[in-house]
Write a structure and sequence with these properties.
Layout: H1 11-22, H2 30-44, H3 53-60, H4 62-69
Helix pairs in contact: 1-2, 1-3, 2-3
Length: 71
């Protein structure tokens, strides 16, 4: 049996992906980053029943949200 195949992704995995998406701030337009975050959210929702799509997208866009709050 392939035990790794049955392993659920965890919050740590989701945070790592969100951090990478968020770090694209200098090279990717906000609209493209939002689309990327949403695409990941749809795909990751199937990896763990406790996955929170809204929280994930907020984590991906954290730099933009904090920038907007500063204005």
């Amino acid at each position: 049996t392939n035990k790794q195949k049955d392993t659920l992704m965890t919050r740590k995995d989701f945070q790592l992906i969100a951090d990478v998406v968020a770090s694209t701030l200098a090279t990717v337009k906000p609209e493209a980053r939002q689309c990327l975050a949403l695409d990941f959210a749809v795909a990751l929702a199937d990896t763990n029943p406790r996955f929170d799509s809204n929280l994930f997208v907020k984590a991906c866009l954290v730099n933009e949200l904090s920038d907007k709050a500063a204005y």
